Amino acid sequence: MKILVVDDERDIQTLFEQRFRKEIRDKSLEFVFAFSGEEALTYLQQNEHEMVIILSDINMPGMSGLELLRHIKQIYQNPPPIVMMITAYGDAENFDTAKKYGADDFLTKPVDFNLLKEKFKQ
Amino acid sequence: MFKLIVDFFIPAQPDKSAEYQRRVRLVAYAIVVTMVFALFYVTTSWVAGYFTGLYIMLGSWIGYLILLFLLKQGLDVFKVANIFGLIGIISIYGSIYFSGGFESPVLPWLASTPIVLLLIAGKKSGYFWAFVAVLIVLNFGLMDYLGFQFPKQYYESKEDYFTLSCQTGLVLIIFFISIVFENLRVKAFNEVTQQKNALETTLSELKATQKQLIQSEKMASLGELTAGIAHEIQNPLNFVNNFSEVNTELIDEMQLELDQGNLIEAKAISNDIKENEQKITHHGKRADAIVKGMLQHSRISNGQKESTDINALAGEYLRLAYHGLRAKDKLFNATLITEFDDSIGNINIIPQDIGRVILNLITNAFYAVNEKNASTLRQAQSNPSSATPKYEPTVTVSTISSKSPSGDLGVKISVKDNGPGIPAKVLDKIFQPFFTTKPTGEGTGLGLSMSYEIVTKVHGGELKVETKEGDGSEFTIILPV
């Protein structure tokens, strides 16, 4: 299962790779990282239909996570990738906008990795 | 009674100054007092058998009455006062002439005109009438010296009575007019004192309000930052938590490998742990710096210059302002460009003050690009057929080593936006306190004026703006090193 993680914090890659090192080692999960919304869109264009899950931060310079979500849901409809939004502020407005744009899940930072593992399994 | 009569002759001249109105009242008082004394003099003359004096006084009395009505009609108070002086001096001259000339008991009355005119019409009139009075005395003296025989028309038997009445009358008239003058002077002085006190109270209230405003401006900008600060602290904290959790797991794994004797694998894991520890330290320091910066921002400036990394300071505030705005306005978006000159190193500034200036300029830049973005969108919506050029909001923060205003080595910090620019008609007002183009309640109008103070007065630098309507603005801070 391939997962695209979008976040402007570069250390997120090290973190995910270590947190999911067992899964990565036994190839049950595969991670790709993008450090901006624009980068994520470019990657998706080049590797269509590969992604199953997209995990995106909302607060990023340039294209925000919400915009990225809107683009993804508009462009890729068959099959639609699962998009999970992550934000530092668990406010209602972000949540509502994310839902409106068709987010499949909404997580607040700090991310509970055990919960995330459960979600991936499902 | 007396006051009622005077009030009757005071014209309503609300457009005239308080000093002019005071003088009108003074002149009216002087004329009315003189008229009362003229009547006494008429009686005295009659008793003393000095009928020429009686007619002169009656004539001047009517003259004074006409003058009062002219005053009421709005004739200039200085003209009224000097006509009053003229009537007075002519009637006194006549009275002296027909009552024995140089030896007349009326002669000392010549003193009254310059004194009264000095009080009611000011110094110039006083000098003039003193000169005239002295001339008349000299004239009488000269005529007497040359042997001229003046008529002496009052009864010889009433000479003592007449002299006594004249001298007493003179003392009293000068005294009464002086009293009126003194009363009005005290009244005017009290009014001025009251106004001064009221002004002082207003001034101290204003100063207190200004202080509060400055503090609330600081707090408002801190409020704008809060969301940004939350984001900026949350992220490093998450890393600290996550990496330390990962390390606990890694240590368990490493122990397992050690138990199994896989030294190479254990060593590889220990390298990961070390790397993670470094990340924990890095992110911990990041959060630490942000909290310190926030405290510094709200702290009242102690005015101490400190060696400061200006690039780090600018970068910090740029991120805070950006995340703060993004947290408030989800749709806000801008491209941030930083061009930092690494050769600058540390410079001596008051970091919280310059930080506030940079924050203010950045916040303004974001506001400007956001405004232009909104208007571009509106244009596109109202006129979908025409191709509106795509607008990319961009804010550039740059630093560069440069000459300071005094010609020494300095540093230039520039905040540039591609917003709507500043209209020429407000450009010269932007550094004025309380000037704002934002809707009421959104801007205090103090940001740029305080920034200007901080840069020019506190740091001896320059704050300049270059702007082109429709293209954007660039604010440049130039500081001496």
Report on this structure.
The complex is a heterodimer of chains A (122) and B (481). Chain A is an alpha/beta fold and 122 residues long. Chain A contains six helices and five strands. Chain A is globular and about 35 Å long. In chain B, the strands form two sheets. A five-stranded mixed sheet of chain B has the order 2-4-5-7-6. Chain B has a two-stranded antiparallel sheet with strand order 1-3. In chain B, β6 and β7 form a beta hairpin. In chain B, α5 runs antiparallel to α6, α7 runs antiparallel to α8 and α10 packs antiparallel against α12. Chain B is rod-shaped, with a radius of gyration of 44 Å. The chains are: A alpha/beta (122), B alpha+beta (481). At the A-B interface, α1 and α5 of A face α7, α8 and α9 of B.
How are the SSEs ordered, and which strands pair?
The complex is a heterodimer of chains A (122) and B (481).
Chain A (H helix, E strand, L loop, with lengths): L1 E5 L4 H9 L1 H5 L4 E5 L2 H10 L6 E5 L7 H11 L6 E6 L4 H9 L4 E4 L4 H9 L1
Parallel strand pairs in A: 1-2, 1-3, 3-4, 4-5
Helix pairs in contact in A: 3-4
Chain B lengths: L1 H8 L8 H31 L2 H22 L4 H21 L14 H10 L1 H23 L13 H101 L3 H36 L7 E4 H19 L6 E5 L6 E4 L1 H32 L11 E10 L5 E9 L6 H4 L19 H12 L3 E7 L3 E9 L1
Parallel strand pairs in B: 2-4
Antiparallel strand pairs in B: 1-3, 4-5, 5-7, 6-7
Helix pairs in contact in B: 1-2, 2-3, 2-4, 2-7, 3-4, 4-5, 4-6, 5-6, 5-7, 7-8, 7-9, 8-10, 9-10, 10-12
